[in-house]
Amino acid sequence: MKSLRERLSFRPTQVSRAVGRALILHPDSLTSGPPSIPQKSLQAVRRRLAEAQARGTTEALEELARGLVPMELNAVARGLLIWPEVADTAEAVLLARSSPRPCATLWQNLEGAPADRRSHRVLAKLVQAPRARWPGPKERETVTAWLAGETLEDGVMAWSRKERVTLVEELARKESPLSRDTRMVAHLAGAWLRKGKDEEILREPLPLRQKGWDYLSPEGRQEAGRNYLRSLSMGKWEEPFCVAIADSFGLPFSPESRREFWDPLSDFIRKAFHRRMIRKTLDEFFTDHERKDYWVNRWSEQMMEVKAGEAGTVRYAIMVFQRFGVVEFFETGNAAYFYDLDLTRRFMMVRPDSPGELKQRIRYPVDRLRGAPDNRLMHSQGWRERGDRRMQAWLKQGPK
Q1: How far is C-alpha 25 from the chain's CA centre?
Q2: Phi and psi angles of residue 106, each rounded to the nearest 5 degrees, phi first
Q3: How many other CB atoms are found less than 10 A from the CB of residue 234?
Q4: Does some domain include residue 349?
Q5: Which residues does residue 306 pair with via DSSP β-bridges, in sequence order?
Q6: Is residue 35 over pLDDT 60?
């Protein structure tokens, strides 16, 4: 299955490092708003922060805080994100100075690294100053509410529930502090997937939710995927998200699935998801309705996984059961072949140019007991009944 999008996911620490490197090389590369900070000024402020930190006194911090000009305050604000070795000192200096001038820079930090706690803490305090130039008076109450939570996502989600405003509606407002193409928006969209209750998960348009999923870390996707399947009824499960979940974690009963994702979910959810994805693969790929209907309607619930492909111009499916596998070709003139699991797994790794590469005539012990000449199921008259008898025997004892 193809992934929902190209996988683009950073953990919060990786976001901070990536944005930090970008800011060092291109200090004005993120959303516009705060004044430009020359590279020399950044490095000079960094040295002064390191010196104050080395002195280790309150007086040193207060002296530095008092002596900073506006551009240097913005440099200190950038330092919260890009200089981890002096970030604590930078936070202390900004709080000691209590100037609202770096508010726009702090917001810019959060646009690129929305999980950055230091920028969040400092901005939450400075934005309430009456002389703050950013944001404007009309937006200050909104931004203050967004920053009121323990994390940015908690504050925005609480505000959104109270005001009944979605992210996409807020983005449509010309005066909104949110900028569409930022990590902040992707982070917030992902937060609704992780923490949304019931149909809150569906409140944003599908493309924005897809963007949120793509932004999530592997751990975040686990949380979001489980929340999605638990919170929504099966009828509300969306194909793109089902495909994304299967792509990330495998099918629930596949030996190669991610057990840490599936085990906490109920057996009912796992069976429903597994059946849905097996049926989807067979329904979408095959046009021979008689063979497809037989395997989908009769045996799909026993399948562990399915691989669909093309051998030259002939479509085929490798259907894996608990003890064996079946290769079925969806074109007249090709029998179905029953194999042990080892051979089935080897065939799943092959990219065949012709059906013959997936055909081996073998007489397994189970076939000898039944009097069958080999492991083929020929699609002649009565093949469904013969298929039922063979499937029941193989399900019971496997190829031995």
Answers
A1: 29
A2: -65, -40
A3: 12
A4: yes
A5: 319
A6: no
Q: What are the CA-CA distances from residue 90 to residues 72, 83, 158, 163, 191 (Å)?
A: 11, 9, 29, 35, 28
Task: Please check whether residue 143 is in contact with residue 110, taking contact to mean a CB–CB distance below 8 angstroms.
Answer: no
Q: In the predicted model, is pLDDT for residue 281 greater than 80?
A: yes
State the pLDDT at residue 13.
41
Whether 204 is in a domain gets the answer no
What is the total count of domains within the chain? Answer: 1
* Cα–Cα distance measured from residue 72 to residue 37, given in angstroms and rounded to the nearest whole number: 8
Residue environment code for 158-190, b if the CB has 16+ CB neighbours within 10 A, otherwise e: ebbeeeeebbeebeeeeebbbbeebbbbbbbbb
Residue 356: how many other CB atoms lie within 10 Å? 12
The Cα-based distances of 177 to 12, 139, 157, 180, 183 in angstroms read 21, 8, 16, 10, 14
Q: What is the pLDDT of residues 185-209, one digit of tens each?
A: 999 999 999 999 998 999 999 999 9
Q: What residues make up the domain containing 309?
A: 286-396
